[in-house]
Amino acid sequence: MNNRVVITGLGVVSSLGMQIEEFWGNIKKGKSGISRIESFDTEGYGSQIGAEIKDFSTNDYIDRKDAKRMALFTQYGVVAALKAVADAELEIDQKIANEVGVLVGSGIGGIEVFEKQVERLVKRGPRRISPFFIPMMISNMAAGQIAIYANAKGPNSNEVTACASGAHSIGEAAEIIKRGDAKVMIAGGAEASISPSALAGFSNMKALSTRNDEPEKASCPFDKNRDGFIIGEGSGILILEDYEFAKNRGANIIAELSGYGMSADAYHMTQPDPNGKGAYRAMEMAIKKSGIPLKEFDYINAHGTSTPLNDKLETQAIRNLFGDYADSLAVSSSKSMTGHLLGAAGGIEAIISVLAIRDNIIPPTMNYKNEDPECDLDYVPNKAREVDNLKNVLSNSFGFGGQNACLVLNKID
To answer: What amino acid positions are annotated as catalytic residues?
Structure first.
């Protein structure tokens, strides 16, 4: 079987908004969701800024008792998933429950739970550790809890591939539908890693921007003066459906997911392949599987982390794959506004790509001021761009460990 896969619902939890249209409106305006971190004291940290969610509430979605037994990333995932199910107008009753699955990734999982419980262990002893410590912390629990709340009894799993987790989850969910193992998949990523240990770890490996005095301008992908990514948090969830199933139930089909590629750099723990070969192969695979010619692509939602190596090598990989046509492509990084949501990045960016297709609007790369001769594509600088007909989009996600995932999204015929 090789069923077509379409997207019928979107759900988001983000520093730029909790509702899809609010979130998309802020992206189109080029608004930044990055600010100084307020959830803990950042004195002494190299980076003190992040795309932190300030006003999150589970009240309308999750039972209060259940919420206390969920890590924050799980709460984000459940809320975004329920929003996506509602957006798709999907009623998961007993007739279809076995045909609805969940695949939601997280790069790190419940790190704040781990921190608090270890502190309790050290200060108060082993008997004071919560019996919910392990099931709260483990990264598959977002998918598990989403299934409980959505009554989704089909295939259930999660991907843990660092910053590619969300994109891998969406791609693998599409493969489940293509082979006929589910009619519907709830897919994407969830992350809540703005915590003391995560911030310290990323800071000490020199991965984060240290422009603490100008948080809104700190994420500047492809700019010559970029100095690191900005840690973010939240969740982006999509409803994927078998095309015939969606059509028969009268669903609002927003876009199609026609291609998925994955590869490994097999090079270094954190640094990308110096020739961008892993990114090249993942993009090439996704495009080949979509069946769409290279010269029919309009836009690439780049991984674009605002780190010196990633942006340079992603640019190189795009040029190597598309050749002279690379100059005709629009390429932008929404991380300039959302920060880098790690395992949730692929979910958020797939949503942005779908909305770009829906509205024929290419989101901007904000804070782009200084041209880098090694980053020489059309990065849609500082202002969203309206186009006549945005048909075919490539969304890139690359993770530590050299794990790469690319998605092809397109207008439905």
So the answer is: 163, 303, 340
